[in-house]
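Posting this for the archive.
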Amino acid sequence: MLNVRILRFEHATRCAAPKRDEAKTKAEKAAHDLEEFRAKHQAADLARSTSKSSLTIFERELSDVAQKIDTFMAERSTLVQQLDSADAKIGGIETELETVRASSRHSKIDNRPLKPDGKKAAKDEETRAEKLTELRLAVGGGAAAFGTFDRTT
């Protein structure tokens, strides 16, 4: 009976060996597939992490650009106000200029230069000095005829 049991055991072992080998092959394939899956998962996790970092950088850049746009818009608004103010001042000056031109045309102002040239000024001064001398002589002679001449009056 022992022999029968041994024979049955050997027979069962021989019959189980192919199943065992098949199970071992499946286990090795599953381990290989698991390692392959882990590698893909790690690569995907790394890609997700990189994408998240890139997204954070892009969001920061977007915020910076939005802030710069706000600054430019505020500066633009200030410049528009300054331009409007300058336009108003220019308009007032142009109105004043037109008023002065119109007044000048109506009053027929002599547009000669205010300072005469040197030779003409010297000649005019000489002529005036001669006339003043003649007037003094005339007044002096008249004063002698009437007595005294009071310069305070």
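Residues 2-108 form one domain. Confidence is low (pLDDT under 50) at residues 142-153.
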